[in-house]
Design a protein that fits this description.
7-stranded parallel β-sheet, alpha/beta, UDP-galactose 4-epimerase, domain 1, globular, binds uridine-5'-diphosphate-4-deoxy-4-fluoro-alpha-D-galactose
Amino acid sequence: MSEGKILVIGGAGYIGSHVVKALNESLFAVTVYDNFSTGQECNLFPDNKLVKGDILDSAKLEQTMSEGFDAVIHLAAKKAVGESMEKPDFYAKNNLIGSINIFNAMLKNGVQNIVFSSSAAVYGTPQYIPVDEQHPTNPINFYGFTKLEIEKVMNWYSELKNFNYIALRYFNAVGYAADGSVCGMEKNPQNLQPIVMENITGKREKIFVFGNDYETPDGTCLRDYIHVEDLASAHVLSVKHLMKNHSSHIFNLGTGKGTSVLEIIQSVERVTGKKVNYEIAPRRAGDPAVLTASSKSAETVLGWKPEYTNIDDIIKTVWNMELKNNGKL
Ligand code: UFG
């Protein structure tokens, strides 16, 4: 007997595969739906059923959901902030239309519960720190706009239909499964942690620190780095909550602690014993100096608490994954 039947859309991706792993460990029966545009075959687990499909393919979504699921987890989205400003049409199609296809396929098949992968990008420039869920939402990039609009559609559907949702607003996702079971390694990473690791593993000659003149202790930006296994556990709790309570919520997921760009670099150097080749560069447009989360709601309602709070412990999981996948390092 399983705890429930879950469809994980985007389940072969970086966060999706960790979510699938956590669901498997909690004895859910999981089907992965992925188009492998960024997901990888090596991130699949043998226990899970696989449907190769795109979220723009409504017929395939409807056919897949006709099997019946207790909940859907939707992590299939384009997520590069810079690219979203250059190709808003592409982001609108994939993120907005793709999500609506998922919701409509759910309605058609009587699937009532969804956990949605949202982002701190919905808040835009923070007006106060730590950011809680009551903070005004004012995205400053098209990616963040798509996440906010999808939340609003879910909110309307929850008012009008038999539809319950939990939107999880991730802060900065980092780390890998501590047991090395997710092969990871994104193609063309855009975020700090994978970029720094690419320098360590010789894939990138040099990295740039975008600004060291911010009003922070070392002048570089502070972010709230949350381990991907802690994100994954929040999805499991959200699914359980939806199945039991049928109520909709929005939760921030972060640790509440700010870590600077230089502190990430120093941690990588400590953990790997290698030097990071970096250069201070001008500020990147749109970067707030500090962005940290209040996750009190997730703690109170879901009983969620991040286990990883030390940056070296987080970076160690990344290094383990690299050593496992590239033993010659
Ligand atoms: N940074 C560098 N050099 C790089 C890359 C990043 O100095 O090569 C700096 C950035 O300027 C920033 C910090 O590292 O200060 C983190 O940058 P990321 O690009 O890794 O992450 P962001 O905080 O910009 O954004 C990420 C996700 C968003 C999400 C946000 C939520 O990309 O989708 O976290 O906190 F909305």
